[in-house]
Amino acid sequence: MMELIWISTAYIAGLVASRLSFPPLVGYLVAGYVLHALGIAVLPDLHHLAEIGIELLLFSVGLKLKPSSLIRREVLSVGGLHLMLMALISALVFLWLEQRVTGGLVLGLSLAFSSTVLAIKVLEDNGELSSLHGRDVMSILILQDIVAIGLLALAEGRQPTPWALALLLVPLLRPIAHRVLSVSRSSELKLLLGVTLALAGGVAAESVGIAADIGALLTGVMLANHPRIKELSDRLWGLKELFLVAFFLQIGVSDLPNQAQIMDALQLLALLPLQGALFFGLFVVAGLRARTAFVSSLALTTYSEFSLITTSAVVKAQLLPAEWNAIISLAVAGSLAIAAPLNRYSHRLFSWVEPLLVRFERKSDHPDRLPDSFGAAEWLVIGMGRTGGVVYKTLCQQEQRVVGLDADPTVLEYHLAAGRRVLYGDAEDTELWSGLPLHKVKGIILTVPAFEVRLTAVAQLRKRGFTGQISSICYHGVEEQQLLKAGANFVIHPLIEAGNRLAHLMLNRRDQPSQ
């Protein structure tokens, strides 16, 4: 009965939130507070289910990571400077208010951390996890997690064991892990293997004094680049989402704040724009374009769920009053509720403030710079994944001059290594369509997965006055009508085309005389 109450309440609250154009997770946060306010007993295993959800989430992220692409200049400069500045500001504030510098320093540093769960979920839902800014955000989150381990050790008076360094050897077990995944041919076995490795990584990390989510991330990296990794990732998707509901519910089960604590939490929420502005400024100084800096900063402008853990440890050590548990809980929940819808419309928000923010850009040769020229290219392929790669090779075989654009650094590296002409370009970037040199281009082929991105790209190109051919993929009938109405000349359904091609091949084979 208790399980039914919690699950049904989460569903109803999530449904209401989605109908109000909020992400369902905002409803889950509200559901946690409502159930706690009504005195409904907490599910005994709610916290444990939430931990499993976080481990599965980080494991899924690891499946898509390429370690060599994580170490970037802006990660160390932006992530490191942001942590130091926020810690300094926090220490000064607590010294002025309560003269509790040590507790304030620990709490302030933990408040400088961004929500890993929200950032990854937003990037994943938007299909931006593998984009350049998505990788930068992920790298900064990992840097914060590493600092968080030491911070929690300081707050609790414990530290990782000397064996903690052995976790860095986990990705070296890749050949064995790949072999095991290859022999696990059934979908059920793949799912069980993924869950087993995620939990095993978490257990191994905790046994050496490291956060479990770091271990799950490393085991995910161990399986990365396997040919069947997409099937495993797709299988884990629904299970991971279900467990993450428990994470958002548990935020609301702490002590409900009183009026004074609510005011303190609101003051902390009022500081969120400062945190976002600091991130934006540091990204721009590091050489990123205003758009990349804005979208990345918005994904990082939250208070981390990790601050709930550090606050509890600081209070137990009597470095801060117990009332801070309720204050931080409400501040974290509020930051997630605010950030979720803002990130959902991050690209639209940037288009509103673009004239102001582009003034802060610095001239640099950073990889997110847009191309100035396509040379003699007459065809553009936007999205160099599996479909886009085939389109590119087919045009080359017809001796056509073609250039490919993609926002994923790993994809760009792959095609450049193969000798293909590819450039950085994010299809969601409105500046890309307004600044592209298209006077020599005869046609543009859109193969990016997200329908909204393809639709916006077609509309932007026609609005700019591009008169060449535009073709796009689509997966639903309603998409085809909207793309054609926006100005696309040709639209194909990859799955339907594959079926038609198979049928024609079979019929042609049947009609051929037997030899």
TrEMBL record:
Sequence intervals crossing the membrane: 75-97, 103-123, 189-217, 237-256, 268-288, 324-342
- Where's it found, cell-wise? Membrane
Keyword terms of this UniProt record? Antiport, Ion transport, Membrane, Transmembrane, Transmembrane helix, Transport
Report the principal subcellular site.
membrane
Q: How does it sit in the membrane?
A: Multi-pass membrane protein
**Organism domain of life:** Bacteria
The answer to whether the entry has keyword Transport is yes
- Residue ranges occupied by any Cation/H+ exchanger transmembrane domain in the UniProt entry: 8-339
Q: Does the keyword Ion transport apply?
A: yes
Q: Where is the RCK N-terminal domain?
A: 380-494
The entry assigns this protein to a family as follows: Belongs to the monovalent cation:proton antiporter 2 (CPA2) transporter (TC 2.A.37) family.
Name this protein carries in UniProt: Cation:proton antiporter
Organism listed in the record: Methylomonas fluvii
